[in-house]
Amino acid sequence: MKKSQMKKWLTCTRLLLAVAALLILVYICLDKDIYKTTTSFHQKIRSYGNERTNEYIQAERMAVLKSYCRNNGTRYTEFPTRRRFVVSEKYKVLYCQVFKTGSTTTLTILHNLEHDERRNTHDMRVMLDDLPFKRLNTYSDEQVRLRLKTYTKLIIVRNPLERLASAWEDKFYYAPSRFGYRKQYHSMLETLSSNTSKTQIGHSGMLPEGSDNKSYPIVPFPAFIKAVGTNRTDWQDPHWQLISDLCAPCHIDYDFIVHTETIAQDYPLFFRKAGIVGREDQLPEVRQRKGDRLFWDFYKQIPIEDLWRIKEKFGADYEMFGYDFNDDIRRLFGR
User: Subcellular location, in the record's words (predicted)?
Assistant: First the structure.
């Protein structure tokens, strides 16, 4: 090969290599963009999928409630006390407060939203004297009707057995003196037979002082469950009263149902439905639930006949809100 031809060949080769390198570089850049775009797309799809799943779950909850009310709604005719409803004028939200369903978390969220704050629960409570909640009982009849018709109405519900266990643990075990529950419901001990042993009733050795400087034995959980399963009015309390009685879900057209068991997953969708934007800092964190512990530690000592009485009494809450007593039994005895 002549020298001039060799030179031309080398030049062409270098040119081809340069073009190939450039094409490879372009491909790499495009590949990165494609990867980013694809990743972003799939992230959006997953987010959209979660949102659609939550939308479906919410629609299913509403359908279950409406179906129940169509068949049984005439049973519930008494409108609950207006004071139970917390009003957010800033976001036009109406919340039916039910104890032992995460109500403290919700009150903290609503208080912070209303006053544009980021207080924790303790600090929120400190401010209640200066910045109390607005409640429905402070409005005229016409104003109440307007808010029931146009505001976003929220109800939070909980599995009946979990709610009862939480109520007993809070009111009779952790802080009974502060609330006076041991004294007020001391007669619940009547439900226990005289030969019931201390090991059967549990926590029998704890006898803290009452507010009147007298000692009242802790009402054990089995006695509490037996008492709640009766129809004695002196043993009833809003902390374990049926949610279906407290919030009249067959007479109030609620817009959103939160389950305590999925509160962290439910709240983002509720925020969007209620038009609450830019306050994601107020969304509750995902925390490890103690429901399984409450089930096993508490209900392993309860006779099956007492559980059936609870099922009969709280049947409306089970059916209205999509809970299944049979699942609870399998969950308890399937360990």
Answer: Golgi apparatus membrane
